[in-house]
Design goal:
The chain has 157 residues and is mostly helical. Helix 1 packs antiparallel against helix 7, helix 2 packs parallel to helix 7 and helix 5 packs across helix 7.
């Protein structure tokens, strides 16, 4: 299986990726906990059916010390006891922010208030930015049918 377009061999795609990677550094350098960042990226990628990003972020999370149990339960986080209340709030915001088209009202006030209970304003800004960013990456990879399975932790720097 080959991707429809080589994102890393095309000048326009490479330039675009450089800019959004810079935006991503703002989030990764924020006070939003790294484990929460990976859980958000994994859950949005699962929802969007992005195998490449799901592969990447589960491997990066495991490499950073995340447990296999938590990684296996991300898709069923509501029924799993292994996530903190703050992580649950971030996952709910991620789901609603990723599935905007599924709800006329977008993200509910309840989901926002719950996330705000556990995250300060800078963390909320990072969380919103991360949800938007991973959705952009997911869409790029799904559109070009980027194959999954070969990612190695740290491959992109």
């Amino acid at each position: 299986m080959d991707a429809r377009l080589n994102l890393y061999g095309n000048a326009v795609a490479t330039k675009f990726a450089r800019y959004i990677n810079s935006a991503g550094k703002v989030v990764s350098d924020s006070t939003l906990p790294p484990a929460t960042q990976e859980l958000v990226k994994i859950r949005a990628s699962q929802i969007n059916g992005c195998g490449f990003c799901t592969d990447m972020h589960t491997k990066d999370a495991a490499h950073a010390g995340e447990t296999a149990q938590r990684l296996h339960l991300v898709a069923a986080w509501r029924e799993a006891k292994v996530f903190t209340d703050a992580e649950r709030a971030a996952l709910e915001l991620t789901e609603q922010g990723t599935r905007i088209a599924d709800a006329a009202s977008g993200v509910t006030d309840e989901a926002w208030a719950n996330a705000a209970k556990y995250h300060d304003e800078d963390q909320l800004a990072a969380l919103v930015s991360l949800i938007a960013l991973i959705n952009a990456y997911n869409r790029m990879n799904v559109i070009i049918q980027q194959p999954a399975g070969d990612y190695q932790p740290g491959q992109f720097g």
